Amino acid sequence: MTFAVVVFPGSNCDHDAHYAVERVLGQQARFIWHKETSLDGADVVILPGGFSHGDYLRTGAIARFSPIMAAVMAFAEAGGPVLGVCNGFQILLECGLLPGAMIRNRDLKFHCEIVGARVDQTDTPFTRACTVGQVLRLPIAHGEGNYFAPEATLDELERTNRVVFRYATGAGQTTDEANPNGSLRSIAGICNEARNVVGLMPHPERACQPVLGSGDGLVVLESVVKALADGGSVRVASS
Amino acid sequence: MKARVFVTLKPSVFDPQGHTIAEALHSLGYGAVGDVRQGKYFELDLDVASTGEAEKLAAEVADRVLANPVIESFRIELSDTASAEAGQ
Question: Using an 8 Å Cβ cutoff, are A55 and A29 in contact?
Answer without folding.
Answer: no
